[in-house]
Amino acid sequence: MATEQDRTWTVDTEPRDKSIEDIDLHEIRGQPVVKFVTAFLIGAVFFLVPVPYNGELTVPFDIVVSTITGTFPNAVGVYALSIIVAGGVLTTLATVGDGEFAGYDLSYFETSTAFWLLRLAGIVVAPLMFFKLGPAWLHTPGTGGLMWGTLVYSVGVIIPIGAVFITIFVELGGLEFVGTLARPIMRPLFKIPGRAALDSLASWVGSYSVGLYVTRNVFEQGGYNKRDVFTIATCFSTVSIGFVGVVAATLDILQLFPVVFGAYFLCVIITAAILVRVPPISTTPQEYITEPDPETAFSGSLSEYIRLALSEAVQKADEGESFLEAAKRGFVDGLKLTMLILGTILTVGLAATLLSANTPIFDILGKPLTPVIAALGIPNAETVAPATIVGITEMYVPVLLVTETALKAKFFIAVLAVSQLIFFSSVGPMTMDMFSDVPIRFRDLVAMFVMRTIILIPLIAGMTHAAAALGLLG
């Protein structure tokens, strides 16, 4: 039962769990089964199947993005510049025309005054970065070079390409299949629908950008309420497996990759299970922005869950659009989303990295943590303490600070940096801009970063000593 109030909907009561006998399973016919299986395999191969590339194992998604950004950097630069300018202009026209301009519906680009100004700032900053104008400190590898040549280029390419394959996967049954099988874990442990497992999976194997795209897509279709979105965006928009490898390689501990990744995986699970039960997540209203489409309440055996998952997936594939229609819509939606967020990412991210590189603020903030880090038995506490705080600007910066430290310190920061999740070079502004209707505010993200860090520091210190005791740290 749903009620409409001020353009939001709420589900009044939790439905009673159904058994497999209570559910009218969809007829399993050849054509929709083939359609679902094909879409599932396309998504799985593109995002999940490891293949050798340049002497390393990676996934086709990473190869495609790396090839485009590495082979055509000038073209990607022109594209990024055009996207940022278009986003700023369309936001301005939407604001001036109250969501409409010259007969065109531009309501998608409406936003708050703060984000309008950030997108306008993007119009100014993007040409400076593209043409390398202004002072040299603006373009150093750790500030403007990182933001423009790495993050902006990557996010600009990742979202539309990832959206094509994710849309095919989601719209042709993959979301229902994965979501149904994940319900017994996701709902009791994290208080979110089973379908949220797909958002997390997209982040693990692809990019947090793709994961957030999935979340936005399902949110707009009534599959998530605002609390679900807050949880997923702040607890499951994870660093990809590939980037964990980059962090390990930077610290010269690639041989410890399985240990680093295992610790990271546990950190994400533990922090999520805690944070969903306290404010600000627990006090976020369980409102929907459209007619709710909650998952079918169900309880059964593993084989019954598989039967239900297949039934739901085949029904979605049977009723869904064609591969070409899904791919086209995904690409267009991805481009629109990129226009929405890329200017914000550039302006906020550049400010954050410049603050980190050119002021002592994070050294000052980290100083009180030095005795805490030392008491936990982590070496090089004076260097490690600021690194625990500076990750709020960009996840890679803490890693660069500890390249000359002891092995335990490297392992500690490697796991911490990728587990904090919230940073303002990308995820922070992207989340606030994409989900302004939740709303997820700046102070909420800062609070989440602080709470994650408080939980993670002793947790990872314990993991570090356990790994050392087991002889895994040499």
TrEMBL record:
Coiled-coil annotated spans: none
InterPro entries in the record: Gate_dom
Keyword hit for RNA-binding: no
Keywords tagged on the record: Membrane, Transmembrane, Transmembrane helix
Domain (Nucleoside transporter/FeoB GTPase Gate): residue spans on this chain: 153-251
Residues that span the membrane, as ranges: 33-53, 76-96, 108-131, 151-178, 229-250, 256-276, 337-357, 409-428, 449-473
Protein name: Nucleoside transporter/FeoB GTPase Gate domain-containing protein
